[in-house]
Amino acid sequence: MHSALEIVASVDRLKSLPAVYHRIRAELESPEGSLNEVARLVTHDGVITGRILQVVNSSLYGFSGQIDSVMRAVQLLGMQQVHDLVLATAVSEAFDGVHAERMNMRLFWRLSVLRGLAARVIGRHCSLLDAERMFVIGLLADMGHLVMYLTVPELAERAQNEADATEQPLHTIERRLIGADYAEVGCALLDSWQLPLGFASAVGGQHTPCTAGAHNFEAAILSLANRVADADRRGLSSEDAATRVDSAIWTHLDLAPNLMGEIREEAELNLAAVTALFFSRH
């Protein structure tokens, strides 16, 4: 049996994010942090510069007019959104070329983006103040699976096959077969990356939001977003997907099950474009 910490510790190539991310984050979190300095740091990395300009001009944000300067993009997005986009870019770069045995990487990234978009849509429906941040949290929510397929691929595949055959919760089977589930592994990974506390807490609590402490609402959003991604993978109808959501999640988010179709439709609207922006090489 393996603990989440043991699984994460055994994958050297996933232990750190690019240094530019940490420099930008330090500036964003500094009391003396400034948009000018953030823009300067962004422009020193050609990949991040290109990605932010692509994203800010994409349908994901819908700003009017062409934005062709990093400073203008940073002003429009604000400090938090710049951090989150830099993080998403850093993750896509860190995993460029990573191929896990027994895992369909193209499908993995498609579902990760769909989960992120669904989480953002749900956050907006819940009037969450930082609903935009839910895109990146949702994008990272299944990273534990990538780590597991890199470290214990046979067991990870066996757990998925058993879950598909029996329709038992995948995380329950993973705990029995492996010793930890993908939410726990993802939480350990994000902790090792020293991301803001809310990221790891929400990801770790996505199956049991009550364990996510102050971030239980974000965890509940992830729980619902997971059902959107699962419905896409299995080819389920939105009505069927809604019935698979724990009633406590609908209550906690103060949403009605009949919204599932609308949430899914909104999330799918930008799916192809956003996947191409971040993961076109996978």
UniProtKB/TrEMBL annotation:
The organism's superkingdom is given as Bacteria
Q: Pfam families from the xrefs?
A: HDOD
InterPro entries per record: HDOD, RNase_Y/CdgJ
Q: Where is the HDOD domain?
A: 14-209
Q: Which residues form the signal peptide?
A: none
Can you tell me which residues the record assigns to a coiled coil? none
Q: Can you name this protein?
A: HDOD domain-containing protein
> What's the source species for this entry?
Denitromonas halophila
